[in-house]
Amino acid sequence: MVEPECYRPQPMFSINQAKRSPVSIALSTLLVLFSPALPSSAEPAHNPINIVVTIPVLKDLAEQVGGPHVRVKSLLSGYENEHTYAPKPTDLVAVRKAQLLFEIGTGLEVWAASLVKNAGSPSLRVVTTSQGVGLIRDHSDLHHNEHQENGEHASGGNPHIWLDPENVVIMLRHITAALIEIDPAHTETYRNNQAAYLQRLDRLRTELSDRVKSLSDRRFVAHHPAWPYMARRFGFEIAATIQVQSGTEPSALQLQSLIAKIRKDRLKVIVSEIQLSQKLPDLLAKETKARVVVLTTLPGGLPGTESYLDMLRYNMLQLANALETP
What we know:
Mean pLDDT: 85
Strand content: 5-15%
Oligomer: single chain
Number of strands: 8
């Protein structure tokens, strides 16, 4: 590598300055003395790694590990439905410019594969962060042929893995390894950032586990199958699900059966999501007097949920408070 030439400061006074007035010379001197010093040997600026992620949780995790060494764009902002998102032309441009694309996989982003293909970037590396996560099967897996058609859960497991903080540990490992591979010069920084974030994550997990220990009733009705990982980790019970499969609505007979179950079992809480229509949860709440709690599966979906840790805390505390309310 050729070293840049050293900066050679100009003489404080030029020949022409000798003919100028004393006041002009004095002002010039002050400008030189109080101007920021230029480095004697300039190090080439490090260009941040261009990263595209499918959902906001991956943006937050990539930024936590990468810090100033990454530039991350999330295709979803937090308000959209991750299953049915339709990529925009600007998304295609972003993918073409990216060095890395982080996705969840497991059939969550059925639209991502065609987006990457259309971008046609041979240098783009796609990292599936769900690799190594133990997937939970849910009721929608019974409709295997339907899922093969629309792509959802095509891998045979529920895709909402990030709602269990233990799975985020695995996801973060994939992100850190990808950054180190592309930018080995900052390996120590990436590893230190990962370790610091995992400590914060573990403290929050302990805090939230302590919060729900005193709950005598941990049952709730889910709007759609987004919560099994959170339920398993923190000891909740999903007593029923309104929309077993994303994009479909229950029949009138199924709704009547669900209303009867909520009344019979005295289920107090219906968990919905800001990314979905509230029509069905509100209808069930009106018929059964159950309480609707609107949570978010994506950071940024609700005020105060801008980061993954904020989102996890918000969801858990809102649910716990609702279950405690008589």
